[in-house]
Structure formats: structure tokens, C-alpha cells
Amino acid sequence: MELPADTRSITLEHMRAFIAVAHCRSFQKAGEQLCRSQSAVTQSVKRLEAHLNCTLVERGNGHTFGLTTAGQRLLPELEDILLRFDAVLRAARQPELRGRITVGIPPSFSTVELQAAVARLLALNSDLQIGVISAMSADIDRMLADASLDVALINQHRFDSSHAAEGIFEVLAQQPLHWASGGHIELAPTMPVPLATYSEGSPWRAATLESLNAAGRPYDFAYVSASYESLCSSVLAGFGITALPDWDMDGRFVILDGTCALPPLPQVRTVLKTAASSPVLRQFCDFIMQLPFFKNLRPRA
Question: Dihedral, CA atoms, 178, 300, 107, 143, nearest 10 degrees?
Fold first, then answer.
């Protein structure tokens, strides 16, 4: 793809418009998210496409059909540009972060994205140290309570918003769980569900078992793991059926909702909690909340 000479005319506004359309899958909804008119968003995307000399969004007759191959390839790169730019702005406007922050994350969280984000944050704050502990959400909650953690990212299937009065609490993402497998599967209503799931302490596991037990549906543990990668590999290899939210799945999974007499699954969410608050913790939590992964999943009022 040959770039024209006027690529310097690409603006942050163009990039934000395209990213919003990509995630909202609608020019109208993207405009509402950005507080801009639909026509303004459309023009921004068209200008970006003209500057890049390629089509990014498949559209026709007023409908958006998704991203082109070029759009899919460029979306994470443009998101990274905006994330870096926003990080630079925050670094310039706020005092440098100092000290040590220990963060607890569940195994389902995207460690790749977190590692990249932490690396950028450390590069901008040379006197900051960050430690990350991966554990089941129930264990993370206990570690936060006994002050072993400063910041906790916790998955929930029962929505508990309780937190220390002086602490920070934010809902980062909320979606329904889905039954999923690695391919088409035939399962009679009376057959035990071959369940691939997380180890005890996982809200995804608890929600799955509660739904099966409430429906009186038998199940067998076909694969149990504390590792997200291991669990996904087992499902894709055909070991069993699992329950995951959209954000934990990609196109390799087959959604089984409404088939095989499987019971409905509840909404789940990821929250951010601290037991205390300080300028350093507030800045760090704001940084986590602005990660594209969470910005695109955060429930809107």
C-alpha cells in the first residue's frame, strides 16, 4: 500500500472516528459516543481513508458491514498511537508517579495488553515500580482486604459493589457469559455436559455451575485449569464446552447459546477496586481505565 505525500494531514480526530466506528459498528453510534454528528464522523473516516489510500470500513446503502482487511490490520496500530499520545498528555499534565504498586489480575485478563501498557507507564515514570500477581478473583479480593495488593481487578458474577469508603471502585467491563466450543457439537439434553472450566475461585466457573445446577443438567469436569491459555486450548482441541464472555473469545470459538438444551447464563463483569486512595493510585487506576480494551467494553449510562 503506497502512502500519498499528504499523510501529515492525518489528525487524531480522524483516528478517533475510525476507532469508534470499528467498535460501535455504526457511524451513528460512533457519533453519539464522540458527541459528534454522524456526517462529521463519516467525513473523518473518509478523509483518513483518502490519506491512507485504502478502504477501512465496508459500507453500503447506509449500513456498516465491518472492517476491511486493511481496517482490521490498522485498527490495533491506530489504537496504540492514541494510547501513547494520551499517556504522554497525562504524563505532561500530572506529576511523575513514584513508589511501588502491586496489582492483582484474574487469569482471563489480557496479559499482553497489560504488559505493554505497564511498559509504557514505566518508561514515562522512572521512579515507579509495578508488581503483578495473577490469581483467581476470590483470592485477589482476599489479598486486597489484607493489604497484600494496592489495586485489584476482579471478575464478578454476583455484582458486589462494596468497597472501602476511602477506596476506588470502577466497573471496567460488563457482558453476558456464552456457552462456547471449538466446533459444532451434538449433545442430547440428557447427556452430561463435558465441562471445560477454570479452577475453584473463578466467577465464570461459579456462574456456570449455578446455571447447570438450577436447570438440573448433569455435567462432568472434562478439563479444569487456572490458566486462560490452557483452558482455551483445551476447548479448541475438543475436550469440552466452556462458558466465557465475548471479550475472552475470538473467531475460533463456536457460540452454543440456545442449543443442546444448555441453560441461559448470567451477565458478568470486571471491576477495579482499591482499599485506599492516593494521587499515585488514582493516576494508575485512571491509566488502567483508559486502556482501549476497557474503554470499548465499559457499560454506558
Answer: -130
| pLDDT tens by residue, 209-231 | 999 999 999 999 999 999 888 99
Mean model confidence pLDDT for the chain = 86
Look up the CATH number of domain 90-168+269-295. Answer: 3.40.190.10
Q: What is the mean pLDDT of residues 22-36?
A: 89
247 CB-near residues (< 8 Å, 6+ apart): 173, 175, 293, 297
Burial of 249 (0-12, 13-18, 19+ CB in 10 A): middle
Task: Kindly state the cell numbers that stand for 146.
Answer: 489484607
- Residue 223 has phi, psi (to 5 degrees) of -160, 130
* Distance in angstroms (rounded) separating the CA atoms of residues 110 and 172: 13
Choice between 84 and 91, residue whose per-residue pLDDT is larger: 84
For the segment(s) 175-267, the CATH number from 3.40.190.10, 3.40.50.880, 3.40.1670.10, 3.40.50.1370 is: 3.40.190.10
Q: Which residues contact 123 (CB under 8 A, 6 or more apart)?
A: none
Q: How far apart are CA 152 and CA 136, in angstroms?
A: 11
Which DSSP symbol is given to 162?
Answer: -
Strands 193-198 and 219-225, bridge-based pairing: parallel
